[in-house]
Fold:
Amino acid sequence: MTSPDAPPRASVPPSGNSVIEFRGVHYRAPTGYTVLNHFDLRIESGETMVLFGRSGAGKTTALKLINRLLEPTAGEVRVDDRATAEWDAISLRRHIGYVIQETGLFPHYTVEQNVSVTPRLESWPRPRIRRRAEELLALVGLDAGAFLGRYPHELSGGQRQRVGLARALAADPPILLMDEPFGALDPLTRMEVRREFQQLQTRLRKTIVIVTHDVAEAVELGTRIALMEAGELRSIHSAKEFLRSDEPIAAAYVAQIRGLAPNGIEGGAQTPNTPDEADRAGNPGPSGRSRS
Amino acid sequence: MNLAGYFARNSSQILQATGEHIWLSGISMVLAVLIGVPLGMLVARRPWTSKPILGTANIAETIPSLALFGFLLPLPWLGARGDRIAIAALTVYALLPIIRNTAAGITSVDPAVREAARGMGMTEGQILRRVEMPLALPTILAGVRVATVWTIGIATIAAAVGAGGLGEYIFRGLAMVDNDVILAGAIPAAALAIIADILFGLLERHMRPERRRAKPQPAGRPRGGLGSGAGIAAAVVLLAMLTCTGLAGCGSGGKDTIVVGSKNFPEQALLGEILAQEIEAHTHLHVERKFYLAGTFICQQAMLAGRIDTYVEYTGTALTAILKDPIEQNSQSVFDKVRQQYQQRFHFTVLPSLGFNNTFAIVIRGPDARRLDLQTISQAAKYTPKWIAGFGYEFMGRPDGYTGLVKTYGLKFAGPPKILDLGLLYRALLDREVDLVAGNSTDGLLSARDLTVLADDKHYFPPYQAVPIVRDQTLARHPELRAAIDALAGKISDAQMQKMNYEVVGQHRDISQVAREFLRANGLG
Structure:
């Protein structure tokens, strides 16, 4: 499966040089409904772009156009300065990590087998695969000894999400796509996993695209936030600008979280180390499995 | 007879039949999996194929097994051997649950899992092999399990086409009206079904990682396989029993009821109907019809057991098949011998012949006969080296069939004879695929088409006069029967029988109406 376009993942420098660009993209669903209209967006190397907006705005569609799970009806999506249509779909996808809300972990595989899927597809040598699996679990804060042998149904929601992330990172792809990665988690777990991810983000320096409709998540994780509405791009702000924006829709969202969190979102986003860090799912200690 | 004793005395044959049974079911299942799983994948991948594929499998499922055998019989390679026919039929029956479960197993894979697999850069083939198939496996296995148990049950019918297996005992038992023999086939078949069910149950449990590791099974659940197996076994035995009682009948009705039997082809049903209407017209007896009994042996056993009182037999058949005597050519001496032996050995009365002789007939096309001026088989011997012959299975195997015919007349053919189903012989002759066939002298087509029967000038074929046979006990109770049946003596000629057969087979007329018209036209009934 290795084509000249897909160099071994590990050789790609962690900072990457990956740029994603939407050029005049249209997408019409097989049902005839136009999901994306005149969509232009450039995602710079190493930044985290949040595609933000309400359900049906076309966020997930835009994301799937990047790894060619969908093909644009018109226009083009470029990855690393090449139209996705010119990429071999398989090498393109192996170039890109993909995390979805339901995790899509393979239920018949153990955690180790799940995180080893891409390395195995890339025919890594066995000892390296094993080493990588342990590394990955450590990276997402899970204890390898306790978790490598487990099946997905033996994990809590938060643990599953961490494994899903680890699997996407397995071959160290320069690009990471995340579709509501924390959406299925309860609020406390969500906040915790999000914070961990935030720390990872600064360490890994990948080009990341996150789809969410959660404002707090958007401002906390995004370098920039692309506000989408009915298949069109409304505005692009940095996280700070977004909070101060007088754009009506953005303002409405921000007002909503200010109402919910009277202390202000900036405060929350800037306190990385909170006491609940001790309750990491990976902790093999006596309290480690207490979470549902 | 005692069941355990029967098992003990016949253990090695029963074991062999069990082996054949496993072989038939096993090969069929392997084929069904090899065909069904890919079809199931196709249905899962291309939903538009679901209707045609599942629809066809569904319809195939509803074809009664004997009818399916009938369809397969004329096929060139397949129809040549009983086990091929049986395996083909069993494979067809096993397909539906396998296709359905494979498709269901694959389509029920969580869409998120499939999306993740695609997003990770797995090819379609890798998704199928590494994700969909392993996840669908328990479901597929459940389908194979159902199909296997099912196949082991249906495989008993394979004996109908001579493919062996445990069904042989069931058929033999039915013929002999002996439950011990039926059970000698039904019990091992049921046991096989249970064992297969348990083994697949264990395999299925082993396949589910969640089950293996998560919660321990609640008590009692592990025996679930056995429970369903026992149910299946009970069903198999019950089915065998029902068929048995249904086929041989449960004894004649009241005291004044006469049960008329017949074998399972139209001429026999016609003769049975003529007999029945004649009895109804001339006595006050109530007549019950048990037609289409499966062959000579079953009729004989039903007579012996008193389940039927009378039926029409052919003297040559009685002599060779029932009395196991060598073939004879003189019709009077055959008749006398059969009458005397039947009286002595079975206490059956053989009444005078109805008139016609249903023996083998060597038939060629009328134009050929006229062109070459042929009337007898001897005359034809000169031309046969340029001809292809077509014969039925039975004719090839019978002591009064092919081998003796060729020897008696010194016949040579252009090639080995084509073995054809009886129903196809005349078609093949008229279509010039073959030039000479061995039919029966009363075949309806002989009266309707331009065909010539060559005279058996060396009297090779033994006589097969149609004679009514009645149980002595029945005659003693109802002496008026004899006069009623005797009135039919000598009334049906070869030509009349051909004509009636043609009306039933060729024109699809109602048997009882054809019989009534015949009786009326001859001042009977």
Observations:
- The longest helix of chain A spans residues 187-204.
